[in-house]
Structure formats: C-alpha cells, structure tokens
Amino acid sequence: MPGDWLLRRRPQGFSAVRYHSLVFPLLLGAGKRLFSARARAKETQKLTLVEHEAYANGLRKNVFDVVR
Fold first, then answer.
1. Which of residues 37 and 61 earns the better pLDDT score?
2. pLDDT digits (tens, 9 = 90+) for 55-66
3. pTM of the model
4. Which residues contact 15 (CB under 8 A, 6 or more apart)?
5. Following DSSP, what letter does each residue of the chain receive, concatenated?
6. CA 14 to chain centroid
7. What ranges do the domains of the chain cover?
8. In this structure, what are the phi and psi dihedrals at residue 17, rounded to the nearest 5 degrees?
9. Of 23-32, 36-45, 49-58, where does mean pLDDT reach its minimum?
C-alpha cells in the first residue's frame, strides 16, 4: 500500500497531530506528489520539523508536528 493512500483516504474531519515520513532517494523517473495543487490550496497545514535523520543508503526520516 503506497504511503499517500492513507493521506488521500483519511476520514472527513480527521486531523493528525504528527506525521512520520520516509523519503527514499530517486534514481530514475519522477517523484509523486502527495497533495494536488487543489488540495494544497483547500486544506493547508503548518508543520514544524521536530526530528530528522539521514542514513548511509540515502534514506531520510522526517517527523513533523502539526502547528495548531
């Protein structure tokens, strides 16, 4: 199941307190947008980076808190 599946199909009125994301390095092709331009304009959330880590294989871990 792709990670964006959960974000795109969350229940109406659902609001997360924290987002955990893993970013994989991309060698070929194009990345996939998690939010469309329409969704970004409609429901903007301010996030604060609270934790991050980079691994030797290029993987990055990011943890964001939602600013209320």
1. 61
2. 999 999 999 988
3. 0.62
4. 66
5. --HHHHHHTPPTT---SEEEEEE----SS----SS-HHHHHHS---EEEEEEEE-TTS-EEEEEEEP-
6. 15
7. 15-25+35-68
8. -100, -30
9. 36-45
